[in-house]
Amino acid sequence: MMEGFEARAEAIGARASARAAARLADAAREKLPGVSVEAEPGRVVISGRGLGRRWLRDPALRWLGGLLR
């Protein structure tokens, strides 16, 4: 019985994680022009030329979670 609950909870969590990653990727694409953003299962990958320097200047890159608000 508990295995069913655990499996259901894991599935719900995986779907919520995928939705959050997709929302973050969409918000990052909108707020961060010139940066490549890809949503993968459970994570968001951001890449681009000069991203390290830009990370120092742009608070949106340092606090990506703020884009989900």
Secondary structure tally, helices: 3
Instruction: Report the end-to-end length measured between terminal Cα atoms.
Output: 37 Å
Q: Tally of extended strands? A: 2
Computed structural class: alpha+beta
Principal-axis shape equals elongated
Question: What is the CA-atom radius of gyration, in angstroms?
Answer: 15 Å
Low-pLDDT regions: none
Mean of residue pLDDT values: 88
- What's the story with the biggest beta sheet? 2 strands, antiparallel
Write the layout of secondary structure elements.
Blueprint: H1 2-31, E1 36-40, E2 43-47, H2 51-57, H3 59-62
Antiparallel strand pairs: 1-2
Describe this structure in words.
With 69 residues, this protein is an alpha+beta fold. The protein contains 3 helices and 2 strands. It has helices at residues 2-31, 51-57, 59-62; strands at 36-40, 43-47. A two-stranded antiparallel sheet has the order 1-2. The longest helix has 30 residues, at 2-31. The protein is elongated, with a radius of gyration of 15 Å.
